[in-house]
Amino acid sequence: MPNRWKPNVTVSAVIERDQRFLLVEENTADGLRLNTPAGHLDPAETPLQACAREVLEETAYSFAPTAVVGIYMNRFIRTRTGSDITYMRFAFTGDLGQHHAHRALDEGIVRTVWLTLEELQATAHLHRSPVVLQSVRDYLAGQRFDTRLIQADPSIYSVPEPTPHTQDLLAHLK
């Protein structure tokens, strides 16, 4: 199946402190947008590892995911290319750690902001994704799932050895 559909896997963090939520303001093809700290899953990394990494890269805060808030899918047409894209987002909450003030934020991130729920609702038209507000609402409703829900086989950390069947297929394609 050469045209198999594959959603883009992303992670995000819903982080609350003093009834405010940590967001990033970032440059996008559609202008400045607000997002919970989020990003793509990288090779050889679990969703929990990706979430901790993305929070650090985008906000300069250490973060330890402790619960899954939800798994969300959304679809849209990219402004730049017109391509149809679907995201599957794993949203976590957890423990916010040390702020590393000396650390530069990821490319495209303009700043971090702490917003109340009311401010989040008022800026919904500026959200990078419709699931930003939904994940915060689910968090506020107490929705939490054990992180053990997400399992990663050790094989993600290494290149698998070809089986005799795949070796035959590869030889046939040459």
Automatic annotation (TrEMBL):
- Decide whether keyword Hydrolase is in the record: yes
Enzyme Commission code: 3.6.1.-
Give the family this protein belongs to, as stated in its UniProt record: Belongs to the Nudix hydrolase family. NudJ subfamily.
Where do the Nudix hydrolase domain residues begin and end? 6-137
Q: Which GO terms describe its molecular function?
A: hydrolase activity
What residue range is the signal peptide?
A: none
What is the annotated quaternary arrangement, including any partners?
Answer: Monomer.
Which cofactors does it use?
Mg(2+)
Q: Which UniProt keywords apply?
A: Hydrolase, Magnesium
What is the gene called?
A: nudJ
Q: Which domain of life is it from?
A: Bacteria
Q: What is this protein called?
A: Phosphatase NudJ
